Amino acid sequence: MRLIGMLDSPYVRRVAISLEALGVPFRHESISVFSTFDQFQAINPVVKAPTLVCDDGQCIMDSSLILQFVEAGVAGGRSLWSSDPKALQNEFRAVSLALAACEKSIQIVYERNLRPKESQYEPWVVRVTGQVLAAFSALEREVQERPQVFAGPLYQAAISSAIAWQFAQAMVASVVPAAACPGLAALSERLEQTDAFRKYPPDGPGV
Question: Based on the number of CB atoms within 10 Å of its own CB, is 52 exposed (0-12), middle (13-18) or buried (19 or more)?
């Protein structure tokens, strides 16, 4: 399998680190949807990262669907989720917040970095900023109140939350101050020292 996309995308990095944690072999190819659009288009005409190219050449998109496919079909029964229903509910809650935080962080980055300044719509930025702050505030409460969800081996809740926090601090730190989320900051710092995170650092050209 081949994973296509730049690791400065939190979604691409989430897939890469999760595959590493699952022990699933794959080849990562750092191809940008911006600077190497044509090269990406030749692999997947939709040009969406992450793209997983399966062994038969078929492409799958969306980080959650990619990981669901991998765990269902090629992970040999290994999973980054709990089997207990209540624990799973808590993990789904954390990951849903982390992915929402990623989405809203990216929307701010795109609005500020891609849209011409004269075309930027400030009410939209204010709205998205409120959403990203709400997501991280709720995720911080999860880290503080349910530490067991983020402890132990690399599970999806910890992986996604740490990646979301690192991305926000790299791209929108002025919007999401580190002091507001000490639990997330500590989680990110701890996970960034693990082998899987160090193997796939958030390298890339950015937007």
Answer: buried
Residue 51 domain-assigned (yes or no): yes
Residues 6 and 75 in one domain: yes
Query: Does residue 33 sit in the same domain as residue 101?
Result: no
Which residues sit opposite 2 in a β-bridge?
27, 53
User: pLDDT grade, residue 153 (50/70/90)?
Assistant: confident
Q: Are 109 and 171 in contact (CB under 8 A)?
A: yes
If residue 52 lies in a helix (H) or strand (E), which one and from where to where? strand 51-53
Q: Does residue 190 sit in the same domain as residue 117?
A: yes
pLDDT class of 65 with cuts at 50, 70, 90: very high
Longest dimension (CA), the chain: 52
The model carries a pTM of: 0.96
